[in-house]
UniProtKB/TrEMBL annotation:
<keyword id="KW-0812">Transmembrane</keyword>
<keyword id="KW-0433">Leucine-rich repeat</keyword>
<feature type="compositionally biased region" description="Polar residues">
    <location>
        <begin position="683"/>
        <end position="692"/>
    </location>
</feature>
<feature type="compositionally biased region" description="Polar residues">
    <location>
        <begin position="575"/>
        <end position="586"/>
    </location>
</feature>
<protein>
    <submittedName>
        <fullName>Uncharacterized protein</fullName>
    </submittedName>
</protein>
<dbReference type="Pfam" id="PF00560">
    <property type="entry name" value="LRR_1"/>
</dbReference>
<dbReference type="InterPro" id="IPR032675">
    <property type="entry name" value="LRR_dom_sf"/>
</dbReference>
<feature type="region of interest" description="Disordered">
    <location>
        <begin position="622"/>
        <end position="692"/>
    </location>
</feature>
<feature type="compositionally biased region" description="Basic residues">
    <location>
        <begin position="636"/>
        <end position="649"/>
    </location>
</feature>
<dbReference type="InterPro" id="IPR001611">
    <property type="entry name" value="Leu-rich_rpt"/>
</dbReference>
<keyword id="KW-0732">Signal</keyword>
<keyword id="KW-0472">Membrane</keyword>
<keyword id="KW-0677">Repeat</keyword>
<feature type="transmembrane region" description="Helical">
    <location>
        <begin position="522"/>
        <end position="543"/>
    </location>
</feature>
<keyword id="KW-1133">Transmembrane helix</keyword>
<feature type="compositionally biased region" description="Polar residues">
    <location>
        <begin position="653"/>
        <end position="671"/>
    </location>
</feature>
<dbReference type="InterPro" id="IPR003591">
    <property type="entry name" value="Leu-rich_rpt_typical-subtyp"/>
</dbReference>
Amino acid sequence: MLGTFNGVLYLSFILHLVQAKILECPKICICKASDVSANCRNNELTELPLGIYSEVLRLDISQNNFESVPKNISTYKLLRYLNLSHNKLTYLDSTSLQGLDALEELVLSHNLLTDWRDIHTDALSHTPLLFELDLSFNSLRGFPDIIEDYPLKSDSLETLYLINCSISNLLGDVLLGTTNLKRLFLSQNPLIALNTQIKSKKLHTLDLSQCNLQRIQPDAFTELTSLEELILARNYQLKKFSSRSNSLKFLDLSHCNLESVPASSLPNLTKVYFKGNHLRHIPANSFASFPSVHVVDLSNNAIMKLDVKAFHGLKSVESIDLSVNTISAIDPETFMSNMKLHKLNLSRNYLSKVGQLIIESLRWLDLSVCEIQEINRDSLIMMPKLQKLNLSRNLISHIPNRLQADELSVLDFSMCRIYTLNNLTFISMGRLRNLNLSGNRLVSGIKPSFFHRITDVKLHDNSWFCDCNSNDFRELYTWVYYEISSTSTLRCRSPENLAGFSWEGACQEVWFAPEGPRSDTMWVYSLLLVILMTFLCCIVISIRHVYHRKATRQREAQEQEREEARERLRRIHQRNLQYSRESMNRNAPDPRELQTPPSYAEAVSMPRLNVSCSSLAGSHRSLHSLHSSHPDISSRRTKLRRKRRRSRHENKASVSETQSVASLSHANTDVSDSEDELRPNTENRNVIESSF
Ligand SMILES: *[C@@H]1O[C@H](CO)[C@@H](O)[C@H](O)[C@H]1NC(C)=O
Ligand SMILES: *[C@@H]1O[C@H](CO)[C@@H](O)[C@H](O)[C@H]1NC(C)=O
Ligand SMILES: *[C@@H]1O[C@H](CO)[C@@H](O)[C@H](O)[C@H]1NC(C)=O
Ligand SMILES: *[C@@H]1O[C@H](CO)[C@@H](O)[C@H](O)[C@H]1NC(C)=O
Ligand SMILES: *[C@@H]1O[C@H](CO)[C@@H](O)[C@H](O)[C@H]1NC(C)=O
Ligand SMILES: *[C@@H]1O[C@H](CO)[C@@H](O)[C@H](O)[C@H]1NC(C)=O
Ligand SMILES: *[C@@H]1O[C@H](CO)[C@@H](O)[C@H](O)[C@H]1NC(C)=O
Ligand SMILES: *[C@@H]1O[C@H](CO)[C@@H](O)[C@H](O)[C@H]1NC(C)=O
């Protein structure tokens, strides 16, 4: 028990020590124990502040005024991350990073390095674990034409950021010093042309977006034997691209100026983005050079025509995006050879009808916003696996009976012009569950039975005619709200007096009124009212009656009492009369008067009353009331005193008087004992006591 307690104490002591050490932190910095970091950002520092924990792992001294890497940074031997961005560094010499053996990540972006020669070739030689270096936003400009050595040498570096460094040329050998480089970000540099074969064995990702590239030599990337990801997006003047690479898997050429699908040899390419170019025509076998491609994005171009063999040979293609183009017709066989195609986006084109596309594997077809006017009963029959079809925002006014799509489960027909449905419309879509018919022109005559096994139907924003007395209408309402549990509000468009009202709002009175004709109910109500009134009256009357009887009984009782009292009085009076007559007759003294009062000595020797009897209390009370209520009390007392004095002088006057005085004295001591604050001035009391 004690051992555990000691253990806990010891542990908390250690913890305290450790925390004190970790949280050792200069006032201007913010330190965190969780990742052993110190953040001394934005302090106009030119020297390292004193008091940073010496075993700090992450140090952020960005947004200060350092002109070089601070010399004593090597105090922090365990430093893994150093952020020196937004400072005024002008050079990085061979000893700048000396002692930072553990450094993994170095951020030197937004400094004042203005030439590759500002960075010593051996600058990174002291950091054997450095894997990420950010030199972005330093105006390093072109790599020197004649280089004695490589601009950067590091065997550990994997990621290098050179974004917006005003680099205007890229030489074949520049990456040879960084033998392990995997990712190179060169975006926003004014490269204009790539005229060399860039060499690197390990490079995996190369970002050359927004580089103003206009020409790229066909074999520019062939020496990049591990290159998988090439980003050339937003080189707005790049018209042509042709390249050979066996390793490339991802090619982004979106928002360039391509006018045709580039003929390249990229056998292992899986994703290709040509979005936002100027492609107009996709001729036959355009993609022959990308046989393994899975994803093709051709959206946001100006494609008008697709050759029937445009996608010929793309055996692995899974998704083709042709949205936002100007295609007006597609041959049904265009995608016939794409045996794995499961998603096709044709949204925002100018197709006037849903042709009978033959795509065996297709599961998701987007034909929204296409100005389609017509769909036939067998339009979808050649896409037997179709599960999702989007026909939203088209001009379709009629869905043919028995439109066949065995696997279809999601159908979006929203914002078309559909005005009618019947019990055959969806009968051939056995798996349809989710149907959007919002924003159409349905008016009335729709029955729940038309929707078969559909569990989610959207019917809002149609031209609903609210015929509250129609059974079909009410049935539809009940079905939509109670079985489908639709959350969107259905509103009436007509008749005019109900336009804009929700269904239940419009038909409330008819649907939710109580059963039976109204006059009957009124009759029942008034009858109930009358009964209620009568009942209330009865209650009031009976209550009044009860009160009345009670009062009479009381009066009678009082009368009787008074009578009895009077009777008693009369009797007493008679008795008195009789007594007086008798005493007159006998003329004898009252027997009580015959009793001799005690002598003075006897009276003194009598036991003193130490409990105030009720009679005495009465006298005391009366005395007290005398004390308190009369302002001329002292004068009365003096009188009393004089009287008593006189009686003493008269020497043992009548015993009755002595008794009364004794009782008075008792009363007085009582007063003095119990009611000090009500005591009249003490002099008087003393006088009374001394008077004995
Ligand atoms: C680093 O050295 C400078 C002088 O060169 C000194 O002012 C500063 O306090 C030192 N900082 C630390 C943390 O040793
Ligand atoms: C380095 O500091 C700058 C400026 O404080 C910040 O914007 C940037 O995100 C930091 N870099 C990293 C890699 O944390
Ligand atoms: C590159 O940085 C400069 C400022 O150093 C800026 O003016 C220019 O717009 C940047 N270039 C791009 C492509 O962002
Ligand atoms: C690229 O494809 C070729 C066959 O065309 C294959 O031999 C090679 O291994 C693939 N390379 C990669 C990196 O997948
Ligand atoms: C089809 O393309 C349009 C426009 O580019 C886009 O909004 C939509 O999400 C795409 N559809 C699918 C199913 O990806
Ligand atoms: C159908 O396309 C429209 C317009 O592009 C979009 O708003 C809607 O979400 C799509 N519907 C489905 C079910 O994807
Ligand atoms: C469809 O409705 C009609 C009446 O309008 C009825 O004769 C027919 O049997 C219904 N068919 C099915 C399959 O419910
Ligand atoms: C139609 O409804 C579905 C869900 O039922 C939804 O995904 C789709 O976006 C809706 N379409 C529009 C145009 O809102």
